[in-house]
Amino acid sequence: MKCRIKNKSKTIFIIIIDNEIRGILSEKILRFFSLEIGKETEITKEEFHKLNKEIENFAREKLLNYLSYRERSLGECRNYLKNLPLHPDSVKKLLKEAIENNYINDARFAEMLVLSLLEKGKSKNEIKNKLFEKRIDEQIIDKTLAKLYSAQKNDEILEKNVKKAWTKFSRFPKNQRIEKCLNYLARRGFSYSETKEKINKIKTSED
């Protein structure tokens, strides 16, 4: 098996074996394998397994550190490992471990993200799009929104956003103000008809 090392940064190196990227290692770890940077070296299967084990250990530490800052989705973690870079077989292995140890849980992640976005007054469509961006499974998205985004919650959030928009565009003539509010809130995922109904109530109370 042929092994080649190339720089990723000053202290991190990409390990390529038989023309396949296996992952990355620090300069400190590489010293134990007597591998020269930029030079192709013949290694045995036993040496390959030892090297690959170190690569996976290094990637595992990176992943755990990545997860320590906040809750992450499976999709985010998969992209993170791929971008290290790390071989697909090792990516699959480390993600499986993380799920089994409950470090990654998309249902938990979805609930936390939805609650956070509800506090910020986001529409159901905005939240759904955000969850899709995080590569959350559609079934988990639907289940989480059904649990946390009730009709009452939707009404509260819409009313709050309509009042903000109505104030935001207060300098415009009434008809233009209404149109700007409708377009502004439609871009944020709120129902055009429901928004118009709320605006009409505000307009009526001011007339």
The assembly state of the depicted protein chains is: single chain
User: What characteristic shape results from the CA principal axes?
Assistant: elongated
Strand order of the largest sheet: 3-2-1-4
Mean pLDDT equals 94
**CATH class identity of the largest domain:** Mainly Alpha
CATH architecture of the largest domain: Orthogonal Bundle
Q: Indicate the low-confidence ranges by residue numbers.
A: none
Strands, total number: 4
How many individual helices?
Answer: 10
Quote the distance from N terminus to C terminus.
82 Å
Order of helices and strands: EEEHEHHHHHHHHH
The biggest sheet, with number of strands, parallel, antiparallel or mixed sense and barrel status, is:
4 strands, antiparallel
Strand content: 5-15%
Would you tell me which CATH topology of the largest domain applies?
A: Arc Repressor Mutant, subunit A
Cα Rg: 26 Å
What helical percentage do the residues reach? 55-70%
Briefly note the structural class of the backbone: alpha+beta
Give the topology:
Elements: E1 2-7, E2 12-17, E3 20-26, H1 27-30, E4 41-42, H2 45-69, H3 74-82, H4 88-100, H5 106-119, H6 124-133, H7 138-148, H8 151-168, H9 174-187, H10 192-206
Antiparallel strand pairs: 1-2, 1-4, 2-3
Helix pairs in contact: 3-4, 5-7, 6-7, 8-9, 8-10, 9-10
